[in-house]
Amino acid sequence: PGHGFEDYEVCEAHGGIKINVSPVDDSGRFSEAAGEDLVGRDVLGEGSSIVIKKLKSTGAYVFSQPYFHRYPYDWRAKKPVIVRVTDQWFVDLSPIRSKAASELKSVKMFPPKSVQRISQMVSRRVQWCISRQRSWGVPIPAFRNRETGEIVLTAESIEHFADIVSRHGCNAWWNHPVKSLLPPSLKSDAKNFEKMTDTLDVWFDSGSSWSSVVYPGKESSYSYPFNEEKSVADLYLEGSDQHRGWFQSSLLTSVAVTNQAPYKHLVTHGFVLDGEGKKMSKSLGNVVDPTLIIQGNGSRQWPGYGVDLMRYWLASTDWSADISVSPEILKKCSEGVRRLRNGLKFMIGSLNGFDPAVDALPYSALRKVDQFAIGKLSSLDTEVRQAYESYNTAKVLSLLQNTLSNDLSSIYFESVKDVLYCDSILNSRRRAVQTVVWRALLTVTQSAAPVLPHLAEDVYNHAPELFKLDRYIKHDASMTDTPSFFGHSWALPSVCVKGDADQFPHVMLQSIKHIDQVLPIRSSVMKIFEELRQAGKISSSGETCIVMQAKVLKEEDALNSIVELTATGELSQICGVSGTVLLNSAGDKPLSSDWKDFKSLATQSVLGESVLEMPEGSQLNISIRRPNSSRCARCRLHTAPLESGLCNRCEQAVNDYLAAQKL
């Protein structure tokens, strides 16, 4: 019974036999307590064979057979763990167990399934074995009387040793003589005492770390019990195995001393596996060193991705469960980082000469397509904050990539490139676009910064003047001398533009709806453009104009959106064409147009056409035609009155530039 848990339980259940002698010594061999013929025999080797022979010789043997069963194995030696009875130090948890379980209810845990696991462990735990038999660690300062066997561990002895540790460190227990370690009341009898060699459970060490982190200051200033108003850590982050380890030991020690949990949030992560989903092990040779990911080894497989890529990979996964890493996985992640970097490079390049303090326009001065982008950025900002609050970094990156790729790059940036590249630098339409691009730069950089800090710093270093506006972004006064992106707090909110705060949410939603109602038109004409390119009839959409005819248009809001966006030229920009005309159902009168000579356009031959079925049974006939105007030599749209000449817009832009050069 001193060498088997089941045997021990049987003895406890039948007669309450006290078992305090182990038949196994410290080296894993049978001791004299097992009998002379077993002394020195290896428990995991020949010793077991001898035990079976003894059972047979005494008639106690019934049957033996090898079978597969669950049994604790040492993960290093890959051998069974030897179980034996030993004397240990225990903490009775009954006085604090219910309070500890109660405190867990106020802790937010991620993933939520962690709540049940750790709560059950705490509520069922009766004792805590805090002693270990190791040659290293924090000693339990207990003494044994050589004559009586009495154990001495009192408040006086602990305080005395604590004073010694403060001056000489923990090694004093091993290096100093017994007499100097004993408290004053026992020094006279020092020759009768010996030091015990038990050390504290390491979970007791780490579980007490809150006392130094949560309560900063000199150790001598600590007072027990602590003041009623106590601060706690915002977050404890560790692997799922720490539900029975650090998370629990921190809770128990904190509740015992301060009567409350030491943390507000518990976040549990899984473990990293290799590309085949196998546990990493040095013996298997499948360990991926983080340094290899960051620095590489000069091969194509491991080129060296940098710190940001490794952070991106981790953040893009469901790290609450086990995750895999391989060169193929990292390569896919590098594409995600590249897209974000390229998007931010485009934004910085588009803001050349833009001073937000002078040039940024109020929200009300923006066009519908600009307000659409602001609305999408506002949604991104809100959802990203919520995702970070719930530690859902994978959702953060998904939101970033979707907004950047689908709403910004594919729709907005593609629509306004012509304005950025060709409008006069003094044109309010260009300033409106730059205002939106500036807000996009701030929002995307802020959203990505917690995951990609080096990318955020790169952006800041290339355009620090765009981040130094206290009216838009809160500045951290404690970092006034630090030239860093992280010297600024997250803008609140990061997408509002000069005023209009009260009406912003309502107007924003209306603008998004305006653009959403014409996006089906864009999708329809894009398909026609692709067919015309493949047929060799056009080389770019700028060579064409769109003529729409409202055959059946029951949805009034949709009609109003198409009319307004056609008149302002925004629909032409969204579709990338030289002009757009919306005709009535008879086709003889324009409802809206950004093309002055719509009659001549209507007579041009049709390059392609389609019928767009819209909500509420509405129907829109769309035809693609080639305008009769010449191609502008600068913007390449077919809006120039003369061959090889400039259109009116480009001529004005050139004149403004020349005038500015003279100044």
Topology summary:
Blueprint lengths: L4 H9 L32 H12 L32 E3 L4 H8 L3 E3 L3 H11 L2 E3 L1 E2 L10 E3 L5 E2 L2 H14 L3 H4 L2 H4 L11 E3 L3 E2 L1 H6 L2 H4 L19 E7 L6 H13 L4 E7 L2 E2 L16 H6 L11 H9 L7 E2 L2 H24 L5 H4 L8 H22 L3 H30 L5 H21 L4 H10 L41 H31 L10 E8 L3 H12 L2 H6 L3 E5 L6 E4 L4 H5 L3 E8 L5 E7 L22 H15 L1
Parallel strand pairs: 2-10, 9-10, 11-12, 13-14
Antiparallel strand pairs: 1-3, 4-8, 5-6, 5-7, 13-17, 14-15, 16-17
Helix pairs in contact: 3-4, 12-13, 13-16, 13-17, 15-16, 15-17, 15-19, 16-17, 19-20
| Number of alpha- plus pi-helical segments | 23
SS class = alpha/beta
Helicity, in percent? Answer: 40-55%
- Report the β-strand fraction as a percent range: 5-15%
Shape: elongated
| Radius of gyration (Å) | 37 Å
Low-confidence stretches: 217-228
The span between the termini is 99 Å
What is the number of strand segments?
A: 17
Largest sheet: 5 strands, mixed
What is the mean predicted local confidence, pLDDT?
A: 86
Q: How is the largest sheet built, in terms of strand order?
A: 15-14-13-17-16
Oligomer category = single chain
